[in-house]
Amino acid sequence: MEADDTVRGLSTSERIAQAERWAAHNYHPLPVVIESAEGAWVTDVDGRRYLDFLAAYSAVNFGHRHPALTAAAHAQLDRLTLTSRAFGSAPFGPFVEAVARLAGKQMVLPMNTGAEAVESAIKISRKWGYDVKGVPADAATIVVAHGNFHGRTTTIVSFSDDPVATTGFGPFTPGFRLVPYGDAAAIEAAIDETTVAVLLEPIQGEAGVIIPPPSYLPEVRAITAARNVLLIADEIQSGLGRTGATFACDLVGVVPDLYLLGKALGGGIVPVSAVVGDREVLGVLHPGEHGSTFGGNPVAAAVGTAVVDLLETGEMQQRAKTMGEVLDARLQRLVGNGVTAVRAVGLWAGVDIDPALGTARQVCERLMARGVLAKDTHGHTVRFAPPLIVTEAELDLALTAFEESLRG
Ligand SMILES: Cc1ncc(COP(=O)(O)O)c(C=O)c1O
């Protein structure tokens, strides 16, 4: 038997056992092993089909294997895959120009993962603080919000208030001030002459799709502008169509100094992230001060440019808005019937499960048995983030399955 056939012949439970045996246990996945996918659907190694209502935490916003995106990747794979930034590459310029245009900004720093974009923004805002604002050396502070999730590097978990993210991982990076999320006055009070930036998720994703009051971001924008502090919007999960707008900041008419993009920028194909801002801020970086071998690589650039092309038609944002209304209306009906709260914006919802019915994990397992994949967050919340190409019939299927799963 060919090695390939041996691999193909493994059952779901054998593959799960293999992963458990050989992979670090830093995730607790649902017991499903996916082999192929298209659009909003995935198929497991036993041929069972599921609707994907997580979309890789919004990295698959445009659906699995969107034809325009896979075509861009295939074409680039056949030409040039990597040069590093030591040389230019043909797709690089069009990519950074496209991302800057999408955000209405002047410059782009391409990286790979979301956490790298956040790390990069921390470095850039500190450098801006020293070079432009005049903060004394090594004194810079950044204001961040309770309940934040910006990634898992040592510096980023330094300002997490989730004990799972922090316990056992110190010592931590200093220079961060935590304030309650949704409270602009608390941000104002935390700012002093050392403050270089306020770093926020416009909507907190991992915390359970926490939507701040509509006045929050505009107030934070006004405060940061008045105090000469950068506003950094981490749109890695909220951005690129998910909320019905290109950026969640658009929903409240706010333009931050830096956008952090990731996840869907790579079209669900390759890791692509970026820090996007104006020359006055990103211009503080000089050769050698920051970098990444794979950042802005040709395949990433080709796919990222195709993602921007898709978003520039506005179709994805419109679909998120229209289908989001259907999702919200169906979910709101469940409040008081197994669900204690629903927070929804675009095609993104945090649904709090009545603890009497079980944990969110148990509800996700029941949902999986009915052919829908979603993931719990923080014990009692189920997060829905289907691909933006989901149809009304697919939404109906998934929500009917969810209603049944609440009953047991
Ligand atoms: C808002 C936000 N920022 C940053 C990250 C980190 O992205 P990555 O997992 O690609 O490092 C995430 C991931 O979930 C996120 O939701």
Instruction: Kindly provide the name of the CATH class of the largest domain.
Output: Alpha Beta
Helix content: 25-40%
Measure the end-to-end span. Answer: 43 Å
Which ions, cofactors or small ligands are bound in this entry? pyridoxal-5'-phosphate
Question: Can you tell me the residue ranges where pLDDT is under 50 for at least 5 consecutive residues?
Answer: 1-6
Task: Based on the model shown, name its key terms.
binds pyridoxal-5'-phosphate, 7-stranded mixed β-sheet, Aspartate Aminotransferase, domain 2, single chain, 2 domains, globular, 408 residues
Question: Your description of this structure?
Answer:
The chain is α/β, with parallel strands linked by helices and 408 residues long. It has 2 domains: 67-312, Type I PLP-dependent aspartate aminotransferase-like (Major domain) (Aspartate Aminotransferase, domain 2), CATH 3.40.640.10; 315-349 and 403-408, no CATH class. 38% of the residues lie in helices and 17% in strands. The chain is built from 15 helices and 15 strands. α5 (92-103) packs parallel to α12 (298-312). The longest helix is centred in the first third of the chain and has 20 residues, at 114-133. Pyridoxal-5'-phosphate binds at residues 57, 113-115, 118, 149-151, 201, 205-206, 234, 236-237, 262.
